[in-house]
Amino acid sequence: MKQLILLSIALLLLLFGCPGGGGGSSLCVDGTPPNSCSSNHPQYCTSEKVLIDEADICGCPAGETPAGSVCVPG
Questions:
Q1: Taking the complete model, does pTM exceed 0.85, yes or no?
Q2: For residue 8, is pLDDT > 70?
Q3: What is the domain count for the chain?
């Protein structure tokens, strides 16, 4: 029983990383490295690994133009 509990804890740490830092992914949820534009324009991966709209930096999909940080038809 003790081995099963230890195995369960190890599996959870592998899947979700250690609480409070250490472990986890060093990428945004879509696989983009921090401080980079995603292939899903206009999204930008911040240093905190959060995707935000930054059309003025990353551009827009075809048929759209930047309007500040967002894309608009046109």
A1: no
A2: no
A3: 1
